[in-house]
Design goal:
Porin; two-stranded antiparallel ribbon; YbjH
């Protein structure tokens, strides 16, 4: 029997993990579900460390992720980076573009699971961008850090999620404490959270509002035909980010 508080349409973050829009949650994808997707990232949405010659830029990410067990989620994400291109051994400085990629893994574990009729929330711990090779003290002072160091998205968090059924509708309350390894991304450190709402007439649709520590984002995700997940969001009501994801259960 399905759990009382289960919500089939779990948002895919820009990392490819389940969550809200920018904020992580303690929700997990369906056990056995594999996902492949692409996400447009507005320059206002990306970490401040992600720059080209001192300026931020729009980009995209694409990912593969899976929930092999109900308590574990893993993702592999690539984010396109702006740089010059080498043509016939010569650097083409006149036409920079999204020629490089930042690759990283993300992991989320859910040691406590929300259950029907119980008061406790789901609890999850996670990390995005598992990369410990960076000499942080040396690279913090580089002028164009995006060309000399990876781990732009490196952060870890603890998240809580609790859902309430209201006349067939589902209201989700999500809180997290997050820490980003780059000081340039410290605006997103500390308590973050949001709410989700799934109407009784369309349980695969979620309205989302969240506070990232610096921004207020609103948006929705919608799982269509069991396999296509769409997400759209506005950062501070102005800057669009969004993407699509193909989902399939391998069990």
């Amino acid at each position: 029997m399905a759990l009382l508080f289960s919500v089939p349409a779990v948002a895919q973050q820009y990392t490819g993990m389940s969550g809200l829009i920018h904020v992580p949650s303690a929700d997990m994808g369906e056990e056995g579900e594999a996902r492949a997707g692409v996400h447009f990232l507005n320059r206002e949405f990306t970490p401040n460390v992600l720059t080209y010659k001192g300026d931020k830029y729009h980009t995209m990410s694409y990912y593969l992720s899976i929930t092999p067990f109900r308590w574990m989620e893993i993702a592999y994400t690539c984010t396109l980076l702006k740089s010059t291109k080498i043509v016939d051994g010569v650097e083409d400085k006149e036409h920079p573009g999204l020629h490089r990629k930042d690759r990283y893994f993300s992991l989320k574990l859910q040691p406590v699971r929300e259950k029907p009729g119980k008061w406790w929330p789901s609890v999850a711990i996670g990390v995005n961008d598992l990369d410990f090779r960076v000499n942080w003290l040396k690279t913090q002072h580089e002028t164009d850090v995006s060309r000399v160091v990876n781990s732009y998205f490196s952060n870890y968090y603890v998240a809580l999620s609790k859902h309430f059924r209201l006349k067939g509708n589902v209201l989700g309350v999500h809180m997290a404490y997050r820490h980003w390894r780059w000081s340039l991304n410290s605006k997103w450190n500390g308590p973050v959270g949001g709410i989700t709402f799934s109407p009784s007439f369309q349980k695969n649709f979620r309205l989302i509002a969240e506070y990232t520590g610096d921004d207020v984002n609103v948006g929705f995700d919608w799982k269509l035909w069991k396999h296509l997940l769409v997400q759209s969001s506005l950062q501070n009501g102005k800057y669009f980010s969004g993407g699509v994801c193909f989902c399939i259960n391998l069990l």
